Amino acid sequence: NAGVTQTPKFQVLKTGQSMTLQCAQDMNHEYMSWYRQDPGMGLRLIHYSVGAGITDQGEVPNGYNVSRSTTEDFPLRLLSAAPSQTSVYFCASSWTSGTNPQETQYFGPGTRLLVL
Amino acid sequence: QKEVEQDPGPLSVPEGAIVSLNCTYSNSAFQYFMWYRQYSRKGPELLMYTYSSGNKEDGRFTAQVDKSSKYISLFIRDSQPSDSATYLCAMSRIYNQGGKLIFGQGTELSVKP
Protein backbone atom coordinates (compact mmCIF):
# COMPACT_ATOMS: atom_id res chain seq x y z
CA ASN A 1 0.00 0.00 0.00
CA ALA A 2 1.19 3.51 -0.82
CA GLY A 3 -0.84 4.91 2.11
CA VAL A 4 -1.83 8.55 1.74
CA THR A 5 -0.28 10.35 -1.20
CA GLN A 6 -0.33 14.07 -1.93
CA THR A 7 0.60 16.03 -5.03
CA PRO A 8 2.28 18.35 -5.68
CA LYS A 9 5.00 18.40 -3.00
CA PHE A 10 5.60 22.11 -3.50
CA GLN A 11 3.75 24.84 -5.35
CA VAL A 12 4.17 28.58 -5.87
CA LEU A 13 1.09 30.59 -6.79
CA LYS A 14 0.38 34.21 -7.47
CA THR A 15 -2.39 35.97 -5.60
CA GLY A 16 -5.72 35.29 -7.27
CA GLN A 17 -4.71 32.06 -8.96
CA SER A 18 -6.64 28.86 -8.31
CA MET A 19 -5.33 25.36 -7.91
CA THR A 20 -6.22 21.90 -6.66
CA LEU A 21 -4.22 19.95 -4.12
CA GLN A 22 -4.58 16.25 -4.74
CA CYS A 23 -4.94 13.59 -2.05
CA ALA A 24 -5.42 9.87 -2.54
CA GLN A 25 -5.42 6.86 -0.25
CA ASP A 26 -5.41 3.17 -1.11
CA MET A 27 -6.42 1.78 2.28
CA ASN A 28 -10.18 1.96 1.69
CA HIS A 29 -10.55 4.39 4.58
CA GLU A 30 -13.95 5.98 5.07
CA TYR A 31 -12.76 9.21 6.62
CA MET A 32 -10.53 11.84 5.05
CA SER A 33 -9.49 15.28 6.24
CA TRP A 34 -7.49 18.31 5.19
CA TYR A 35 -5.38 20.26 7.66
CA ARG A 36 -3.09 23.22 7.34
CA GLN A 37 -0.02 23.68 9.51
CA ASP A 38 1.37 27.10 10.30
CA PRO A 39 4.21 28.01 12.68
CA GLY A 40 2.96 28.36 16.24
CA MET A 41 -0.56 27.24 15.28
CA GLY A 42 -0.31 23.47 15.14
CA LEU A 43 -2.60 21.75 12.64
CA ARG A 44 -6.02 23.22 11.93
CA LEU A 45 -8.83 21.33 10.24
CA ILE A 46 -10.04 22.81 6.94
CA HIS A 47 -12.61 20.27 5.66
CA TYR A 48 -13.36 16.65 6.29
CA SER A 49 -15.39 13.82 4.80
CA VAL A 50 -17.01 10.80 6.42
CA GLY A 51 -17.58 9.02 3.11
CA ALA A 52 -18.02 9.47 -0.62
CA GLY A 53 -20.44 12.30 -1.33
CA ILE A 54 -20.34 13.66 2.25
CA THR A 55 -18.19 16.60 3.31
CA ASP A 56 -18.29 19.16 6.09
CA GLN A 57 -16.41 22.23 7.24
CA GLY A 58 -13.69 22.27 9.83
CA GLU A 59 -12.17 25.11 11.79
CA VAL A 60 -10.79 27.21 8.89
CA PRO A 61 -12.83 26.46 5.72
CA ASN A 62 -12.95 29.90 4.11
CA GLY A 63 -11.28 30.07 0.72
CA TYR A 64 -11.27 26.30 0.22
CA ASN A 65 -13.62 23.84 -1.45
CA VAL A 66 -13.68 20.07 -1.33
CA SER A 67 -15.62 17.23 -2.90
CA ARG A 68 -15.46 13.48 -2.44
CA SER A 69 -16.72 11.55 -5.45
CA THR A 70 -14.80 8.36 -4.63
CA THR A 71 -13.55 6.70 -1.46
CA GLU A 72 -9.96 7.07 -2.63
CA ASP A 73 -9.71 10.75 -3.55
CA PHE A 74 -10.28 13.96 -1.63
CA PRO A 75 -9.02 17.03 -3.55
CA LEU A 76 -8.76 20.46 -1.95
CA ARG A 77 -9.43 23.46 -4.18
CA LEU A 78 -8.16 26.96 -3.57
CA LEU A 79 -10.56 29.26 -5.34
CA SER A 80 -8.52 32.48 -5.39
CA ALA A 81 -5.20 32.14 -3.62
CA ALA A 82 -4.18 34.72 -1.01
CA PRO A 83 -0.84 35.16 0.80
CA SER A 84 -2.61 34.10 4.03
CA GLN A 85 -2.99 30.65 2.49
CA THR A 86 0.77 30.15 2.44
CA SER A 87 1.12 27.03 4.55
CA VAL A 88 1.86 23.33 4.61
CA TYR A 89 -1.22 21.27 3.80
CA PHE A 90 -1.72 17.76 5.08
CA CYS A 91 -4.30 15.24 4.01
CA ALA A 92 -5.23 12.44 6.41
CA SER A 93 -7.39 9.35 6.34
CA SER A 94 -8.74 6.99 8.96
CA TRP A 95 -11.23 4.23 9.57
CA THR A 96 -13.12 2.94 12.53
CA SER A 97 -13.46 -0.45 14.10
CA GLY A 98 -14.25 -1.76 17.53
CA THR A 99 -10.81 -0.93 18.85
CA ASN A 100 -9.67 1.79 16.48
CA PRO A 101 -11.25 5.23 16.72
CA GLN A 102 -11.43 7.46 13.68
CA GLU A 103 -9.07 9.81 15.32
CA THR A 104 -6.08 7.52 14.70
CA GLN A 105 -5.39 9.17 11.42
CA TYR A 106 -2.78 8.47 8.76
CA PHE A 107 -1.21 11.60 7.32
CA GLY A 108 0.26 12.20 3.90
CA PRO A 109 3.67 13.81 3.37
CA GLY A 110 2.23 17.29 2.86
CA THR A 111 2.13 19.97 0.17
CA ARG A 112 4.07 23.18 0.76
CA LEU A 113 2.25 26.14 -0.78
CA LEU A 114 3.67 29.60 -1.22
CA VAL A 115 1.35 32.37 -2.38
CA LEU A 116 3.07 35.52 -3.59
CA GLN B 1 -7.62 31.54 24.19
CA LYS B 2 -6.77 28.36 22.31
CA GLU B 3 -8.64 25.20 23.26
CA VAL B 4 -5.38 23.27 23.50
CA GLU B 5 -2.12 24.78 24.73
CA GLN B 6 1.29 23.22 24.26
CA ASP B 7 4.68 24.70 25.01
CA PRO B 8 6.44 24.93 21.62
CA GLY B 9 9.92 24.56 23.13
CA PRO B 10 12.43 23.90 21.74
CA LEU B 11 13.37 21.30 24.32
CA SER B 12 16.89 19.90 24.29
CA VAL B 13 17.92 16.90 26.40
CA PRO B 14 20.92 14.54 26.53
CA GLU B 15 20.57 11.00 25.27
CA GLY B 16 19.13 8.70 27.92
CA ALA B 17 17.15 11.41 29.69
CA ILE B 18 13.48 11.12 30.61
CA VAL B 19 11.42 13.57 28.59
CA SER B 20 8.11 15.02 29.73
CA LEU B 21 5.84 16.69 27.19
CA ASN B 22 2.59 18.31 28.25
CA CYS B 23 -0.62 19.86 27.00
CA THR B 24 -3.41 21.66 28.78
CA TYR B 25 -6.89 22.13 27.46
CA SER B 26 -9.95 24.15 28.32
CA ASN B 27 -12.86 22.11 26.96
CA SER B 28 -14.01 19.51 29.47
CA ALA B 29 -15.90 17.71 26.68
CA PHE B 30 -12.69 16.27 25.22
CA GLN B 31 -12.69 12.50 25.63
CA TYR B 32 -10.02 11.13 23.31
CA PHE B 33 -6.41 12.16 23.54
CA MET B 34 -3.64 11.45 21.09
CA TRP B 35 0.05 12.08 20.66
CA TYR B 36 1.55 12.42 17.19
CA ARG B 37 5.22 12.59 16.27
CA GLN B 38 6.33 14.64 13.29
CA TYR B 39 9.80 14.48 11.81
CA SER B 40 11.07 17.47 9.88
CA ARG B 41 9.27 17.90 6.53
CA LYS B 42 7.12 14.81 7.10
CA GLY B 43 3.52 14.20 7.99
CA PRO B 44 2.53 13.47 11.62
CA GLU B 45 2.37 9.84 12.69
CA LEU B 46 0.30 8.53 15.57
CA LEU B 47 2.26 7.47 18.65
CA MET B 48 -0.45 6.74 21.19
CA TYR B 49 -4.06 7.39 22.01
CA THR B 50 -5.98 7.16 25.27
CA TYR B 51 -9.60 7.46 26.23
CA SER B 52 -10.67 9.49 29.24
CA SER B 53 -8.36 9.55 32.26
CA GLY B 54 -5.57 7.14 33.04
CA ASN B 55 -2.22 5.90 31.82
CA LYS B 56 -1.15 3.94 28.78
CA GLU B 57 2.29 2.51 28.18
CA ASP B 58 3.92 1.40 24.93
CA GLY B 59 7.58 0.55 25.12
CA ARG B 60 9.52 3.66 26.13
CA PHE B 61 6.44 5.86 25.83
CA THR B 62 3.81 6.53 28.51
CA ALA B 63 0.75 8.71 28.00
CA GLN B 64 -1.14 10.13 30.96
CA VAL B 65 -4.48 11.90 31.05
CA ASP B 66 -5.77 13.85 34.04
CA LYS B 67 -9.22 15.09 33.10
CA SER B 68 -9.79 16.73 36.48
CA SER B 69 -6.85 19.04 35.78
CA LYS B 70 -7.40 19.14 31.99
CA TYR B 71 -3.79 18.07 31.53
CA ILE B 72 -2.17 15.39 29.42
CA SER B 73 1.43 14.23 29.33
CA LEU B 74 3.73 12.09 27.24
CA PHE B 75 6.81 10.61 28.89
CA ILE B 76 9.71 9.22 26.90
CA ARG B 77 12.15 7.03 28.82
CA ASP B 78 15.76 6.46 27.76
CA SER B 79 15.44 9.07 25.05
CA GLN B 80 17.35 8.50 21.81
CA PRO B 81 18.58 10.88 19.10
CA SER B 82 16.00 9.24 16.83
CA ASP B 83 13.30 10.69 19.12
CA SER B 84 14.25 14.19 17.92
CA ALA B 85 11.05 15.47 16.33
CA THR B 86 8.05 17.69 16.98
CA TYR B 87 5.43 16.13 19.25
CA LEU B 88 1.83 17.18 18.81
CA CYS B 89 -0.99 16.49 21.20
CA ALA B 90 -4.49 16.18 19.74
CA MET B 91 -7.97 15.73 21.16
CA SER B 92 -11.53 15.10 20.11
CA ARG B 93 -14.85 15.50 21.85
CA ILE B 94 -16.77 12.55 20.54
CA TYR B 95 -15.75 9.11 19.43
CA ASN B 96 -15.82 8.74 15.68
CA GLN B 97 -16.28 12.36 14.85
CA GLY B 98 -15.06 12.03 11.29
CA GLY B 99 -11.48 12.89 12.06
CA LYS B 100 -12.16 16.25 13.68
CA LEU B 101 -9.12 16.72 15.85
CA ILE B 102 -7.98 19.78 17.77
CA PHE B 103 -4.19 19.97 17.86
CA GLY B 104 -1.75 21.68 20.15
CA GLN B 105 1.00 23.82 18.65
CA GLY B 106 3.59 21.07 18.94
CA THR B 107 6.78 20.81 21.04
CA GLU B 108 10.09 20.56 19.22
CA LEU B 109 12.36 18.02 20.94
CA SER B 110 16.07 17.55 20.33
CA VAL B 111 17.92 14.61 21.92
CA LYS B 112 21.67 15.16 21.85
CA PRO B 113 24.06 12.16 21.66
What is the terminal-to-terminal distance of chain A? 36 Å
The overall strand count of chain B is 11
Name the structural class of chain B.
Answer: mainly beta
Order of H and E elements of chain A: EEEEEEEEEEE
Rg on CA atoms of chain B, Å: 13 Å
Q: Mean pLDDT of chain B, as a whole number?
A: 90
Q: What gross morphology of chain A would you assign?
A: globular
Q: Which stretches of chain A are low in confidence, meaning pLDDT under 50 for 5 or more residues running?
A: none
Strand percentage of chain A, roughly? over 45%
Would you tell me the overall average pLDDT of chain A? Answer: 91
The class by helix and strand makeup of chain A works out as mainly beta
> How much β-strand is present in the residues of chain B?
over 45%
Report the sheet with the most strands of chain A, covering strand number, pairing sense and barrel closure.
7 strands, mixed
Oligomeric organization of the protein chains = heterodimer
Number of helices of chain B: 0
Order of helices and strands of chain B: EEEEEEEEEEE
Distance between the termini of chain B: 37 Å
Identify the most extensive interface between protein chains: A-B, 32 and 29 residues
Question: SSE layout and pairings?
Answer:
The complex is a heterodimer of chains A (116) and B (113).
Chain A: E1 4-7, E2 10-13, E3 19-25, E4 31-38, E5 42-51, E6 54-57, E7 64-66, E8 76-78, E9 87-94, E10 106-107, E11 111-115
Parallel strand pairs in A: 2-11
Antiparallel strand pairs in A: 1-3, 3-8, 4-5, 4-9, 5-6, 7-8, 9-10, 9-11
Chain B: E1 4-6, E2 11-14, E3 19-25, E4 32-38, E5 45-51, E6 54-58, E7 61-66, E8 71-76, E9 85-92, E10 102-103, E11 107-112
Parallel strand pairs in B: 2-11
Antiparallel strand pairs in B: 1-3, 3-8, 4-5, 4-9, 6-7, 7-8, 9-10, 9-11
